[in-house]
Design brief:
- The protein is built from eight helices and 32 strands.
- The model has no long low-confidence stretch (mean pLDDT 97).
- The structure holds (2S,3S,4S,5R)-3,4,5-trihydroxy-6-oxo-oxane-2-carboxylic acid (GCB).
- (2S,3S,4S,5R)-3,4,5-trihydroxy-6-oxo-oxane-2-carboxylic acid binds next to loops.
């Protein structure tokens, strides 16, 4: 799916700002047709943001079910004759959208964009009402899954992942135009052959049978380097400047539809990076060279905003990662905002791009992260219908991010059950679907500690091993010598069994900022440093380890639990982005700082 852009043939208007807002605790809004007008007493809510932490009431923080957002927008009179589209960057977890009294869109999944062609409904020059009902319920057929338990005190949302179930309109809402005959999708796959780059492209368009597709490639200095006509083809770029980790060199692919006039009917600019990605034995190659991932698993999480996209937080986080020398991160545990992906393209930050499939594991946590006593994969729990939703989540992620050079690997799930026949049956078609959606990139899933090499039955379906391991924390707690031996032994067993590259996608220790001790003891800052240093010694001894991404970049909000102190504290920064002592070790290791 294309992002909305301003071009000579397209215009856009952001609908971000304060919308009218009404929680629907009784679930009556759909029957009472609240799209005709929210009940008296409705409040305001910023877009984009999670709604949970904006007001002080616990009821809204822990709300389960529908909330309603509404705003008015005047469609510019100058848009007469254009195709008019309403686009949401993400609404968590599902939405129905009305323009005035007409339902125009319905979308399942909280982290990918969706849009509606509203040309037939709106009149340029007039004001229209846009209403969104946002449902945050997680059920057995949602990704991520969950269920609502009826308790004597009312419903309670249960789920198996370790971050707070923030909800709302989390990303920018755009109203934009295209010409009636327009470019609807572009797919680019790049290659390198010595000093020559190749750009394979495919353009899809609507109502454009009589129009010619022209593509022009220009370099970062604006000089034209190649051009072609036709809806699919390949162009060569001599003396190519590849996109590299740490250096996000971008070309501009101008895609145009031409008729008889002396200007294009539609034009769409796509920033592209020319690079290759490949797995070769136990090596992960970018542009044919071995790449070692350094960085973090992150979250879209900050005070007040929750998971609402915020450019200040984004830029600050990237500045801190750069300060540490981190070259990569994983979009744990869901696709991040499109602004994040664009930033990574521009700055050469390497991304492992993950679907929202987290918490598909009823064996995890022993009751800590939620209710237990379920079978993960069964007719009544995670079933064929869930898999359809998961497959759609994979397709939507690839559709949105396929052209981003920063994305080098798809992660189709985090820590699912992967040691049972049911898990193999569940994942085989999903791995195939991911490969079909994008044959050009490696795929993987993130393996949980409960499924070591002698138990795991799905890793052979994937190209890399991504391992989350908590030696020294959840096991061998406080005993780093034992942890060091156990971690090295397990990595050796993975190497013997699969011979694939291993990326350590999580390891770390909860650490209370400001808690110090002469001896490293769990929860103090010295222990976090000692545990990470121990892990790094082991990684350095195992050739197949091609990456280290610490859990987590920053402390983040979770559900309450006896293992959580005002959230998960495994960040190397606090939630306010103040550093813990371990950052100095990281700067030395990743940046060579003294
Ligand atoms: C994990 C999960 C992550 C948790 C982390 C922890 O394995 O993937 O979502 O937050 O462990 O801190 O327990």
């Amino acid at each position: 799916m294309l992002a909305s852009r301003d071009t000579p043939s397209r215009e856009r208007r952001s609908l971000d700002g304060l919308w009218r807002f009404a929680p629907d605790a009784e679930g009556v809004g759909r029957d009472q047709q609240w799209w005709e007008g929210l009940p008296a007493g409705s409040r305001e809510m910023p877009v984009p943001a999670s709604y949970n932490d904006v007001y002080p009431e616990a009821d809204l923080h822990d709300h389960i079910g529908d909330v309603w957002y509404q705003t008015d927008v005047r469609v510019p009179a100058s848009w007469a004759g254009a195709r008019i589209v309403l686009r949401f960057g993400s609404v968590t977890h599902r939405a129905v959208v009305w323009v005035d009294g007409t339902q125009v869109a319905e979308h399942e999944g909280g982290y990918t964009p969706f849009e509606a062609d509203i040309t037939a409904i709106v009149e340029p020059g007039s004001e229209h009402r846009v209403t969104v009902v946002v449902d945050n319920v997680l059920n057995w057929q949602s990704i991520p899954p969950g269920y609502v338990e009826d308790t004597p005190d009312g419903p309670r949302q249960r789920y198996w992942h370790d971050f707070f179930n923030y909800a709302g309109i989390h990303r920018t809402v755009w109203l934009y135009t295209t010409p009636p005959a327009h470019i609807s999708d572009v797919t680019v796959v790049t290659g390198l052959d010595g000093s020559t780059g190749t750009v394979g492209y495919r353009v899809e368009s609507v109502s454009a049978d009589d129009l010619e597709v022209r593509v022009t490639l220009t370099d970062a200095g604006g000089a034209e380097v190649a051009r072609a006509t036709g809806s699919a083809g390949e162009v060569a770029v001599g003396d190519v400047h590849p996109w590299r980790p740490g250096e996000g060199y971008l070309y501009d692919l101008a895609v145009e539809l031409w008729g008889d006039a002396d200007a294009p009917v539609d034009s769409y600019p796509l920033a592209i990076g020319i690079r290759t990605v490949e797995v070769d034995g136990a090596r992960f190659l970018i542009n044919g060279e071995p790449f070692y991932f350094t960085g973090f698993g992150k979250h879209e999480d900050s005070a007040l905003r929750g998971k609402g996209h915020d450019n200040v937080v984004m830029l600050h986080d990237f500045a801190l990662m750069d300060w540490l020398g981190a070259n990569s991160f994983r979009t744990s545990h869901y696709p991040y905002a499109e602004e994040v992906m664009d930033y990574c393209d521009r700055h050469g930050v390497v991304v492992i791009d993950e679907t929202p499939a987290v918490g598909l594991n009823m064996g995890l946590g022993g009751g800590i992260f939620g209710a237990q006593g379920f079978t993960t994969f069964s007719e009544e729990t995670i079933n064929a219908a869930t898999r359809e939703v998961h497959q759609q989540a994979i397709r939507e992620l690839v559709a949105r991010d396929k052209n981003h050079p920063c994305v080098v690997l798809w992660s189709i799930a985090n820590e699912p059950e992967s040691d049972t026949p049911g898990s193999r049956a569940y994942f085989e078609p999903l791995a195939a679907a991911a490969r079909e959606a994008d044959p050009s990139r490696p795929i993987g899933f993130v393996n949980v500690m409960l499924a070591p090499p002698d138990k795991d039955v799905v890793s052979d379906l994937f190209d890399v091993l991504m391992l989350n391991r908590y030696y020294g924390w959840y096991v061998n707690t406080g005993d780093l010598p034992a942890a060091e031996r156990a971690l090295e032994a397990e990595l050796g067993a993975w190497v013997d069994k699969h011979g694939k590259p291993i990326i350590m996608t999580e390891y770390g220790a909860d650490t209370l900022s400001g808690l110090h001790g002469i001896t490293p003891v769990p929860w103090n800052e010295e222990y976090q440093s000692a545990l990470l240093e121990m892990s790094h010694r082991v990684f350095d001894r195992v050739d197949a380890v091609v990456g280290e991404q610490i859990w987590n970049f920053a402390d983040f909000a979770t559900t309450p639990g006896i293992m959580r102190v005002d959230g998960n504290k495994k960040g190397v920064f606090t939630r306010e982005r103040r550093p813990k002592a371990v950052v100095h070790h990281l700067r030395r290791r990743w940046r060579g700082a003294s």
